[in-house]
Design brief:
The chain is of the alpha+beta class. Helix content is 56%, strand content 11%. A four-stranded mixed sheet has the order 2-1-3-4. The longest helix has 23 residues, at 2-24.
Length: 143
Amino acid sequence: MKRAWTLPILLVLCGAAGAAGPALTGSTAAAVVLLLLFLLLAGVHSPLVFPRSLGALEAERRSAADGRPVVHWRPGCRYCLRLRLRLGRDARRVHWVDIWRDPAGAAVVRAAHQGDETVPTVVVAGRAHTNPDPEWVREQLTG
């Protein structure tokens, strides 16, 4: 849990430290803009941007029942964020597994990538796909 929040917390702290300089010199507007920028970056890199994560076993069970893809991801991954944002509202129809929270999810990813934790890894019908095009993932939802 702590690992997922490390980058967002560091971004907030850096933003606060960076905004202190302009605030102390009387440039309140610049301080506010800088702090808001870092808060936005922290929010985008936090687990809050993603739909609620499931455990790998639960995601596999649900995927077997409804045929929807399982996306293994981790906070701070720009490719995971790209997939999430490009899927838009359809992201809620996919089963998400945070590999930093779920050791079984991390094991699935390592098994698919010869020991590496390469994400996003999308599992469709038992087959792993590394960093697939978001449009392809969307097609798997309609098929």
